[in-house]
Design a protein that fits this description.
The protein is mostly helical. It has 18 helices and no strands. It is 70% helix and 0% strand.
Length: 317
């Protein structure tokens, strides 16, 4: 596939995705997300939506669905945990006892039980939920399943501070309610979003395969034309050493007016996406210190200082 065709496909897919995203956010999308999170084929699109937008009230309501995914050890676990850890801590604390009860009272055996116990203990240690952690260790030690015993032993090896007293009272709450089935409009909007999300990923990855080749020149050309889609691609590339040469080439090719416009568009993309945005914004500032024209760096500082996110503002004291 030619570079020109790859860019054309990506730009069309990004435009389709943006339309689908706006349409979905205009619906009561929570029930559709619940259904998608239970689906092996749609789960990553749902996690992508939650990671980008971080609708915290929605995340709080979906914690009974998200927390089990945060301990299962699958490829989605890291992204789920990032969403959970960004939620209000009191909401997470309130939802955790139901997860603990589900694991220690569940019918799982063998490898499945080991992964559930180990994942749960790891999450509870990360969250510093020591009382619940002690309960899980005690349950593991009392289990007749040797795999579950092994999970407790592994955890004690890693976190010896909790080896001693594990005799805490059990904590139990009932399962929390989650939204019911989606209405037809939301279901239709979700299906369109899922298709658009997948297509944009495919076309974006096709472009990114051109790193070290024509990627930097093509990105510079489309940033020069004021393409928001190109700015979103640049935002995704920031902070990754894999694309450092290409993104330096792209920004280094821009003259003052185009550079300022490109930085403004990339800042818009970064601030609209919660995924690693502080890390990526810092990478943008670092990149712009390497560009001879200082207009871009000055623009990025302005945007950081005007941000409502205190973490972004802290980058531009």
């Amino acid at each position: 596939m030619s570079d020109k065709r790859a860019w054309r496909d990506y730009l069309a897919a990004d435009e389709e995705y943006e339309r689908a995203d706006r349409r979905l956010r205009a619906t009561d999308y929570e029930p559709a997300l619940v259904r998608a999170l239970a689906s092996g084929t749609e789960m990553f699109a749902a996690l992508g939506f939650l990671s980008v937008h971080r609708p915290l009230e929605t995340v709080h309501r979906l914690l009974p669905v998200l927390l089990p995914l945060a301990i299962e050890g699958g490829s989605e676990q890291g992204e789920v945990r990032a969403v959970v850890l960004a939620a209000d801590r009191s909401a997470v604390t309130e939802a955790l006892p139901a997860l603990v009860d589900h694991v220690v009272s569940g019918p799982a055996e063998g490898d499945e039980a080991y992964l559930a116990y180990y994942g749960l203990m790891d999450l509870l240690e990360t969250l510093e939920e020591r009382q619940l952690l002690r309960r899980v260790i005690r349950a593991a030690r009392r289990s007749p399943d040797p795999e579950v015993h092994s999970a407790a032993d592994d955890f004690d090896d890693d976190f010896g501070a909790l080896k001693a007293d594990v005799e805490d009272e059990d904590v139990h709450i009932g399962a929390q309610a989650v939204p019911g089935p989606p209405d037809p409009q939301a279901a239709q909007a979700w299906q369109a979003y899922d298709r658009a999300w997948s297509r944009r990923n495919v076309t974006r990855n096709e472009l990114l395969r051109r790193r070290g080749g024509g990627l930097g020149a093509g990105l510079g050309e489309h940033l020069r034309s004021g393409s928001p889609a190109a700015a979103r691609l640049a935002a995704d590339m920031l902070g990754s050493q894999e694309y450092a040469k290409d993104i330096r080439e792209a920004f280094g090719s821009l003259e003052t007016a185009a550079l300022r416009e490109a930085v403004s568009l990339v800042a818009d993309a970064l601030l609209a996406d919660h995924r690693l945005r502080q890390v990526r914004f810092r990478a943008l500032l670092t990149l712009l210190t390497e560009v001879p024209d200082t207009a871009g760096f000055a623009m990025a500082l302005e945007r950081a200082r005007a941000s409502t996110d205190p973490q972004i503002r802290s980058l531009a004291p």
